[in-house]
Specification:
single chain, 341 residues, mainly alpha, 77% helix, elongated
Length: 341
């Protein structure tokens, strides 16, 4: 199986498993947070894009397009990271054109054709990373809730139970700030009973140069950023299907913009334009696509010919035809002499 396809399927499978976990938690009336609610409500978009990617990559020709234009993935990833995935079509096109200008390059028709599918792939990958992060936080929250439930159960029998028997102050709370954040919030509910454990916690954090207020602020910011990110990811998954090849060609391809200066080409149907594009790709395999078209346009301007006269080269069949007819005539004459002389 193609490595890209396998990675996409694996990522989608993880997201699906996480989605099912969230659904089960909500059925049991557990709070999962707004970021996870976004995932629950919009998971269908992941399924749609997974199917579209699988269909695209399973086609050998399209798979080769991806492999031969892999640099487009990195270009798109840099653009989306720059904007924290807060992207729309106009921003994307502006950034793609800016990249071409800054790097003195021109995207080929093939490179442009893989833009939508590479966007889908990188969005799925980022969502996968976010799900992993949020699942780890869910696990930490569960551990805190388990501790609090055990304390509550013990306090029913002994209101003055020692909280130190239930709360471990060790390296785990440093490596898992979300656990510390929730542990701190929940222990406060026990009032004076938690003074001793808080004193022990404060001392441990101080010894390890951990500022509890900073941890709390960072977790608040992390939650806000995750909410923004998940909304951006799903908004982009929703709109990526609206990125059409023809529009990308018209607004991004320098080759296409050059062709559009010709009134005949400009007035063609999309089907005819696609025919021209495919032929241009075929003709320019060993040269620069843009320079190839630029030179043709120069020839068109300096002659009475049209673009088609240079792109669709007419085969010289006259010589072959004459030779074929001559051989037939010679064969007929040869048979005639054998029969009648």
């Amino acid at each position: 199986m193609n490595k890209v396809l396998k990675k996409v399927i694996d990522n989608c499978k993880y997201i699906e498993d996480y989605y099912e976990k969230l659904v089960e938690l909500t059925k049991n009336h557990n709070f999962v947070g707004s970021t996870n609610e976004w995932i629950i409500d919009n998971f269908y978009l992941v399924v749609e894009q997974r199917n579209a990617i699988k269909k695209f990559i399973k086609n050998k020709k399209d798979r080769n397009l991806l492999n031969n234009n892999s640099e487009m993935y990195n270009i798109l990833l840099d653009i989306y990271l720059k904007h924290n995935y807060n992207m729309d079509k106009n921003i994307l096109i502006k950034e793609l054109n800016s990249y071409q200008t800054k790097n003195n390059t021109c995207f080929s028709y093939n490179a442009i054709s893989v833009i939508p599918i590479y966007i889908s792939i990188l969005l799925i990958e980022e969502l996968y990373d976010l799900c992993r992060k949020r699942e780890e936080k869910l696990d930490d929250l569960k551990k805190v809730n388990d501790v609090i439930q055990r304390i509550d159960a013990a306090r029913l029998e002994n209101p003055d139970v020692d909280l130190n028997e239930f709360v471990k102050i060790d390296k785990y709370i440093i490596d898992h700030p979300y656990y510390l954040y929730n542990l701190n919030a929940n222990l406060k509910e026990f009032g004076e009973s938690s003074n001793d454990i808080f004193e022990k916690l404060s001392k441990y954090l101080e010894e390890n140069n951990i500022d509890l207020k900073e941890v709390i602020n960072n977790e608040h910011l992390s939650s806000i950023n995750d909410n923004l990110l998940v909304s951006n990811l799903f908004n982009n998954l929703r709109t990526v299907t609206k990125l059409k090849y023809d529009e990308l060609c018209n607004r991004v391809s320098k080759t296409e913009k050059t062709l559009l200066t010709d009134s005949v080409y400009k007035s063609m149907t999309q089907e005819s334009k696609n025919l021209y594009r495919r032929q241009i790709v075929k003709n320019s395999k060993k040269t620069d696509e843009y320079k190839y078209v630029y030179n043709i346009m120069e020839k068109v301007r300096n002659s009475d010919k049209e673009i088609a006269d240079f792109i669709f080269k007419k085969k010289n069949v006259n010589r072959t035809y004459i030779l074929y007819v001559s051989l037939i005539l010679l064969f007929i004459i040869f048979i005639y002499f054998i029969l009648y002389f």
